């Protein structure tokens, strides 16, 4: 009986760990440069281009040195470089972004990446950054970053960056997915299309219904 229990626990652990370590699929060849899907067919990732037709263009993206315009409601702009911009990233489990922040107050609003851990490198400026751990602790971990500093946002956790310096700020970040995904909390909750029933948000956020109506009427800028 004890032996059987041991085998069962071992089996459950093995299943759990194979799920825990799930990430972007590993390539089974040198590369699998993405081509667009045929209508009505879906794969977990993208179809591969014939390797004979692949060229350096499939692995290249220029211009990440160019500052982006941050005159928008949140004062930041994300320039993604993932499998959409570089089809050669398909199956490779990695991507990159550049983030520009307006002087004092430029914000990359609280958001999560459902499929990636992020390693952020500050090139210019001073950023107040943070993430919140999951329930029930919901512990806030923050740091003020300066040029040369690197900070990690673990996969799935809500995080943000806020420019607390007087000048523009610029950061680059590596993400552990070819397609990290972004869920901006305010946009998803108050700006969904169609809107979430206000009774749900009134109870969930313990707000007056008029505040929920006000929030649902706002324009939720997407900085990505
Ligand atoms: C796929 O199609 C979209 C829109 O039609 C286009 O912007 C994109 O560059 C295409 N990607 C590839 C890898 O061909
Ligand atoms: C930045 O964007 C704003 C708003 O769209 C625009 O008014 C402004 O001219 C742009 N600035 C530059 C330098 O392109």
TrEMBL record:
Localization: Secreted, Extracellular space, Apoplast
Taxonomy, superkingdom: Eukaryota
Listed Gene3D superfamilies: Jelly Rolls
Molecular function GO labels: manganese ion binding
Signal peptide boundaries: 1-22
Spans through the membrane: none
Cupin type-1 domain span: 62-213
SMART domains per UniProt: Cupin_1
Residue positions binding oxalate: 108, 113, 118
InterPro entries membership: Cupin_1, Germin, Germin_Mn-BS, RmlC-like_jellyroll, RmlC_Cupin_sf
Disulfide bridge positions per record: 32-48
Entry keywords, A to Z: Apoplast, Disulfide bond, Glycoprotein, Manganese, Metal-binding, Secreted, Signal
Location (main, coarse): secreted
GO CC aspect terms: apoplast
Record flagged with keyword Metal-binding: yes
Residues annotated as binding Mn(2+): 111, 113, 118, 159
Family statement: Belongs to the germin family.
Annotated function: May play a role in plant defense. Probably has no oxalate oxidase activity even if the active site is conserved.
PANTHER family membership: GERMIN-LIKE PROTEIN SUBFAMILY 3 MEMBER 3
Name of the protein described by the UniProt record: Germin-like protein
Species of provenance: Salix dunnii
């Amino acid at each position: 009986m004890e032996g059987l229990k041991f085998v069962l626990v071992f089996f459950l652990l093995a299943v759990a760990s194979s799920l825990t370590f799930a990430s972007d699929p590993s390539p089974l060849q040198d590369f699998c440069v993405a081509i667009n899907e045929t209508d009505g067919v879906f794969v977990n990732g993208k179809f591969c281009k014939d390797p004979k037709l692949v060229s350096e263009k499939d692995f290249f993206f220029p211009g990440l040195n160019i500052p982006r315009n941050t005159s928008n409601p949140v004062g930041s702009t994300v320039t993604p470089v993932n499998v959409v911009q570089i089809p050669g990233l398909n199956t490779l489990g990695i991507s990159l972004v550049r983030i520009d922040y307006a002087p004092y107050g430029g914000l990359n609003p609280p958001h999560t990446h459902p499929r990636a851990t992020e390693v952020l490198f500050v090139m210019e400026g001073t950023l107040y950054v943070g993430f919140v751990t999951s329930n029930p602790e919901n512990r806030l971990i923050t740091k003020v970053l300066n040029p040369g500093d690197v900070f990690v946002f673990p996969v799935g956790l809500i995080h943000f960056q806020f420019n607390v310096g007087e000048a523009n700020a610029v950061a680059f970040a590596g993400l552990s997915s070819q397609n990290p995904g972004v869920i901006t909390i305010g946009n998803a909750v108050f700006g969904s299309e169609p809107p979430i029933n206000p009774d749900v948000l009134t109870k969930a956020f313990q707000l007056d219904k008029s505040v929920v109506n006000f929030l649902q009427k706002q324009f939720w800028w997407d900085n990505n």
